Automatic annotation (TrEMBL):
One of its GO terms (molecular function) is dipeptidyl-peptidase activity. Residues 431-589 form the Dipeptidylpeptidase IV N-terminal domain. InterPro entries: AB_hydrolase_fold, Peptidase_S9_cat, Peptidase_S9B_N, Serine_Prot_S9B/DPPIV. Residues 693-891 form the Peptidase S9 prolyl oligopeptidase catalytic domain. It comes from the Bacteria. Residues 1-21 form the signal peptide. One of its GO terms (biological process) is proteolysis. Residues 192-213 are annotated as: Disordered. Gene3D superfamilies: alpha/beta hydrolase, Dipeptidylpeptidase IV, N-terminal domain. This is S9 family peptidase. Keywords: Signal.
């Protein structure tokens, strides 16, 4: 019997008026499942259960209003919402219905058409997935129905086009006949030539008609369908985007928001909207002018100031001017304005020119070819890639400090840069400039990788005065540098705070901003071994700082109020919540965060800092999730051989007992990556969480996710464990985990599988090759097997020392280790992956074959997939393959 979804999809395949109804059937009506009934088609539904998270969180100057961008589950784009903290009411400011009036009708014809297409594609993909599952269960299902319906649609489109073309041709012929009669009346037509021409046209028309009347064969229709699918493939710009950015006034309760490159002004009390710009050129909002008398925006690099009253428009950051014989001719890269709009810091770069020709030099990065197999013959596209042994071409850079000129003021002679770097074959990074609130000072940091030299500078608001080096540190300072250090002043401008990890954990430090020659001291503001590298804000009196930290739980990230005088901390959110995307009211009375955990998915939470009262402002996710939310993971930690606590979680089946001998699978990542790891209380990661829940509920497996040494957010000891011994500490921790599981989790030691993605794909292979008796089977997804070919920004920070002259990271290649494989291994990769190149998997596969491992290794490829696949292989298909592989090699639970 055909599933209802299948018949619906076929009936609606080319009916745009009912496509939305089909989608509602396919994504909303998920029947509550028992463990035995749960399917991968339900878990990895075509339309995700997760909704969008609120973004662009901003309080009004007085803290009364909170503005944010968000939309409920299933809606496209992010609209503007306004929450009144005084009344507790929330208003939706923008919507497709409202914003449609500001756009060209043609834009909305496209938005509506493409939204319908998106819903229809999701509906059909879900219906196909369920039909295929039914077919494999032995049910009678005609899997050709979708193609039949699609080809019928193509046939009709071709027929309609033929009719349209014939009508157009007839009209042209009629016009030509009229012209002929008119010309004949003037006696200018040679009758013999006209007759011959008519005969030729008739013969040509007859031949063409005969050709057009031939019915296209099915393979021709399939070619036409393929062309149509490529032509109509959805792009981000096809759908209603909603609001892109917003900024509150400095004093008044009004804001400006950015929509599709134009700017709009909103009065918070009345909800009145006024359009400020209407151009074909995209304006990017910066904010209000100092006294709210106008607003600032930019196009590419230029910043403009516009006045509300008189419409005056002027450019603030005129381009840099250089004499013809200047050694370096800098051009603006970025401009940072002070809060009072009186000063700006201009970051500039000098183009790398070839002296002989005066033309720009070729890009520093090599160009790597990626093959595309979707056409009749394979073709290649090139993507830039800088690897560790490439000679670098860092552009010379300079920093200019410039006073914002008054209206109609005469231009001044351009002051020289206050700071510069020669660039070249070096690794030099500079943070964004940060101004003090009163614009009296500014600060920034630099990092030189080869010298292992970190510096923090403080400058005065003076066009000619060079900044002072206040802090200098040599040696390893962690794999994330200037983007994390981010020095900034407290609101009173008296204290300079930066994120350092001098005690082994990334935390805020007080820097002596009056020091000279880099002799300033760094004083830790917090006490304890935990990560706290995100500062949310400060109280107006600069006595209190709000940070996100994992002080009480490495798997969570709570918001804390910190007294700067003594470092005492008070937790503001609920225990176990992971806070992301947080903002603080300027009056220091309220905090807003997107926060949640496994038991309650993340939502936008507003917290009153004096009472800790908490209110939830959004409802983002599909309530149908509850119908498949059968199991929750249990957290645990174990001590590795070095005494480190290793965090993990486990899904246990309903009838689990400690004495069981069940098959199990471990999911790992293992590498440092900003502030992310796997064991996070709000993460429903596709394999670690969703597949873990499914295999435990459906097949009785014990499913574990683990953060071995190597991960970020556990301190320097973990994130640096990988350095010059990549894979080794992680493997030790995985070996210790396998022993722990056998003793404590009711697991058969001979039936434990291992899997991971990206760095986890590398780690899975490394462990399967070097510790071949620990795991019984492994699946390695998109793993970098040859680190010398990976992006140098990552490998040079996290893998080992590099040299420009030779690929020294080859010493960490997996290829020589493949001789150690003893157990089944499946390699998974997207063949168009621009991140970890597909060649990494091809080369390790070749090495495995050369070493006689053909009976152990499988290859699962997505011809159109990139780093996360998602070409022809979607999440359901990938995990269907995982399920089959592990059941085959680890067996069923007894």
């Amino acid at each position: 019997m055909l599933p209802k979804l299948l018949s619906l999809s076929i009936a609606l395949a080319f009916s745009s008026s009912l496509a939305l109804a089909a989608n509602n059937q396919s994504t909303a009506s998920v029947v509550s499942a028992t463990a035995s009934e749960l399917t991968l088609e339900q878990v990895y539904r075509a339309k995700s259960y997760a909704g969008q998270a609120a973004s662009q969180l901003h309080f009004s100057a007085d803290g009364r209003y909170l503005a944010y961008l968000w939309n409920p589950f299933g809606e496209n784009g992010s609209d503007l919402y306004l929450h009144d903290t005084l009344t507790g009411s929330t208003s939706r400011i923008t919507s497709p219905t409202l914003m449609k009036s500001y756009d060209a009708p043609e834009d909305w014809l496209r938005f509506d058409k493409k939204a319908l297409q998106k819903e229809q594609e999701e509906s059909e993909r879900q219906a196909k997935a369920e039909a295929h599952a039914a077919y494999l269960r032995g049910e009678k299902v005609d899997l050709s129905l979708w193609e039949t319906a699609a080809l019928a649609g193509i046939k009709q489109e071709l027929a309609d086009k033929k009719t349209k073309d014939a009508t157009k041709k007839a009209m042209l012929a009629a016009d030509a006949a009229k012209e002929k009669i008119a010309m004949a009346a003037l006696g200018k037509t040679n009758k013999a030539e006209a007759g011959k021409a008519d005969a030729d046209k008739k013969d040509e028309k007859a031949d063409k008609s005969s050709e057009d009347d031939k019915a296209k064969e099915i393979w021709e229709l399939r070619d036409e369908l393929k062309k149509k699918l490529v032509k109509e493939r959805l792009k981000a710009s096809d759908l209603y985007p909603g609001v892109e950015n917003l900024a509150w006034a400095k004093k008044a309760n009004e804001l400006i928001f950015q929509y599709r490159g134009d700017l709009f002004r909103l009065q918070a009390a009345t909800g009145k909207i006024a359009r400020l710009t209407q151009t074909d050129k995209a304006e990017r909002l910066i904010g209000y002018s100092a006294e709210d008398q106008g607003y600032l925006y930019m196009d590419d690099k230029r910043i403009y100031s516009a006045n509300f009253e008189n419409g005056d428009l002027r450019q603030l950051n005129r381009e840099l001017i250089h004499p013809d014989d200047a050694d370096k001719k800098y051009s603006i890269k970025e401009t940072v304005l002070s809060e009072d709009r009186r000063w700006m810091a201009i970051s500039a770069e000098a183009p790398d020119a070839v002296p002989e020709a005066g033309k720009p030099a070729p890009a520093a990065e090599r160009q790597v070819e990626i093959m595309n197999y979707s056409e009749r013959f394979a073709s290649a596209k090139k993507v830039p890639r800088e690897v560790s042994d490439d000679k670098r071409k860092v552009l010379a850079s300079a920093l200019y400090i410039r006073r914002v000129s008054e209206n109609n003021a005469d231009p001044k002679l351009q002051a020289p840069p206050v700071f510069s770097n020669e660039g070249g074959d070096v690794w030099f990074e500079m943070s964004k400039v940060s101004w003090a609130k009163d614009a009296s000072r500014y600060t920034f940091s630099t990092w030189e990788r080869e010298k292992q030299l970190l510096r923090i500078y403080v400058g005065k608001a003076d066009e000619n005065l060079k900044p002072t080096l206040v802090f200098e540190q040599r040696g390893d300072v962690g794999h994330e540098v200037v983007n994390v250090i981010a020095p900034r002043f407290t609101p009173d401008g008296k204290s300079l705070i930066a994120i350092l990890d001098q005690n082994g954990y990334r935390q805020p430090y007080l820097i002596d901003s009056d020091a000279k020659d880099g002799k300033g001291k760094a004083q830790a503001l917090l006490k304890g071994n935990f990560e706290a590298h995100h500062i949310i804000g400060f109280s107006p009196d600069s006595k209190t700082m709000l940070v996100l930290a994992n002080r009480d739980d490495f798997a969570a990230m709570n918001a804390y109020s910190v007294k700067l005088a003594d470092g005492s901390m008070t937790a503001l959110g609920q225990a176990g919540d992971f806070h992301r995307n947080s903002a603080m009211a300027e009056n220091g009375q309220q905090l807003v965060s997107v926060a949640g955990q496994w038991s309650k998915r993340p939502e936008l939470q507003l917290i009153k800092l004096d009472t800790r009262a908490r209110s939830v402002l959004t409802d983002s996710h599909d309530p149908q999730w509850k119908n498949i939310d059968l199991l929750r993971p249990a957290r645990f930690s174990y001590a590795n051989r070095h005494g480190d606590a290793i965090e993990a979680y486990v899904f246990k089946p309903a009838n689990w007992q400690a004495s069981d001998l069940r098959p199990a699978v471990v999911y790992t990542y293992g590498g440092p990556l900003n502030d992310r790891h796997i064991v996070e209380t709000d993460s429903f990661q596709a394999t670690a969480y969703l597949f873990g829940m499914y295999m435990a509920a459906k097949h009785g497996y014990v499913m574990v996710a683990v953060d071995p040494r190597g991960h970020s957010n556990y301190g320097r000891k973990f994130s640096d464990a990988n350095w010059e011994q990549v894979g080794k500490p992680q493997t030790e921790d995985l070996q210790d985990l396998a022993s722990y599981m056998q003793k404590n989790l009711g697991v058969d030691a001979q039936r434990i599988g291992l899997t991971g993605w990206s760095f986890g794909g590398f780690q899975t292979q490394y462990t399967m090759y070097t510790s071949p008796d620990t795991f019984a089977a492994g699946i390695a997804g998109a793993g970098p097997t040859e680190w010398e070919n990976y992006n140098s920004w990552y490998s040079g920070r996290t893998i080992g020392k590099t040299e420009r002259s030779k690929p020294t990271l080859r010493r960490y290649s997996l290829l020589p280790l493949t001789t150690g494989l003893k157990k089944p291994l499946m390699l998974v990769h997207g063949m168009q992956d621009p991140n970890v190149l597909y060649q990494d998997t091809v080369n390790v596969y070749r090495a495995l074959l050369e070493n006689g491992k053909e009976g152990l290794v499988d290859l699962f490829l997505d011809p159109d997939g990139e780093h996360g696949l998602d070409g022809v292989v979607k999440a359901k298909g990938r995990h269907k393959k995982y399920e089959s592989f592990f059941l085959q090699h680890l067996g069923v639970a007894k």
